[in-house]
Design goal:
There is one protein chain. The chain is α+β, with helices and mostly antiparallel strands. The chain has 2 domains: about 130 residues, no CATH class; about 70 residues, OB fold (Dihydrolipoamide Acetyltransferase, E2P), CATH 2.40.50.140. About 45% of the residues lie in helices and about 15% in strands. Strands 2-3-4-7-6 form a 5-stranded mixed beta barrel. A hairpin with a 2-residue loop joins strand 6 and strand 7. The longest helix has about 35 residues. The termini are far apart.
């Protein structure tokens, strides 16, 4: 029987072939693995920013507004930029995985499910660790206000008084109303009464940022059904410097509870 190994060795010597390193043979595989990892991390960051831009929306709002308004607000103020980038990262990540030496053996359903699971878990982890908050703060300082409406639509969500939502910073507090400066620097009078719900149980005080659910009853006047607090840097800006009015006794006005609490 003919020994083909000798023929192979002879051919190698004849053509002066030089053995290539494992890295050179596998470099495409490494590139696709690296691309997949980058896409998953980018998708997780985008998914985390989706959560960050939607977490302020409480399902309990349905109690205070009509169903069509609730879904209209979600549709018009969803973080579409981050949703689109999340899906693009998912698609490219799956394609990259399918081009690796192991990934091509797996079904498309398996690869997609695995990528969705990893991106979702990392996205939730980023929200729990407040990584998405830091990313949002960095972007709010670096991008234009026009681009901000696409990357962080939360402020736009709380600037829809016609749909019953207005948010901003409290400038004055009295027994039956609040004076609020919106995130678009409009001055609003917020009427409160014993039926106004407080989602947060702490008293409302001057300088705090809040979201109001209610009904617009006049120009820059809203009847509040529910009020929730936001962090001081919720819109990426520090609270304004406010001169606190003094009460009749000469002492500064203290945080006050809503009527009925």
């Amino acid at each position: 029987m003919k020994d083909i190994s000798k023929d192979i060795i002879a051919k190698i010597k004849e053509k002066n072939l030089v053995p290539q390193s494992r890295f050179r043979l596998q470099w495409k595989n490494y590139v696709f693995w690296l691309l997949m990892i980058m896409m998953i991390l980018f998708g997780a960051a985008s998914a985390s920013l989706v959560v960050f831009n939607m977490v302020d929306f409480d399902p309990r709002f349905l109690h205070h507004m009509k169903l069509y308004k609730f879904f209209r607000i979600i549709i018009f103020t969803a973080p579409y930029l981050w949703l689109i980038l999340s899906f693009l990262a998912l698609a490219f990540g799956v394609l990259a995985f399918r081009n690796t030496s192991r990934g091509y053996r797996k079904s498309l359903l398996f690869a997609t499910s695995l990528a969705v699971l990893i991106i979702s878990l990392l996205g939730v982890f980023g929200h729990i660790m407040k990584i998405n908050k830091k990313m949002d703060e960095m972007m709010s300082k670096r991008i234009s206000p026009q681009m901000r409406s696409f990357s962080g639509p939360r402020e736009g969500r709380w600037a829809r008084p016609g749909d019953g939502l207005i948010g901003g910073e409290i400038m004055e507090v009295s027994e039956n109303n609040l004076i609020l400066i919106s995130f678009h620097d409009e001055k609003w009078k917020i009427i409160i009464n014993e039926k106004t719900e407080k989602i947060d149980k702490d008293d409302i005080s001057i300088g705090e940022k809040v979201g109001v659910i209610g009904e617009k009853i006049d120009e820059f006047v809203m009847q509040a059904f529910s009020i929730k607090k936001f962090p001081d840097d919720w819109d990426g800006r520090h609270p304004r410097r406010v001169l606190i009015r003094e009460g009749r006794s000469g002492s500064p006005m203290m945080p006050m509870a809503l009527p009925g609490e």
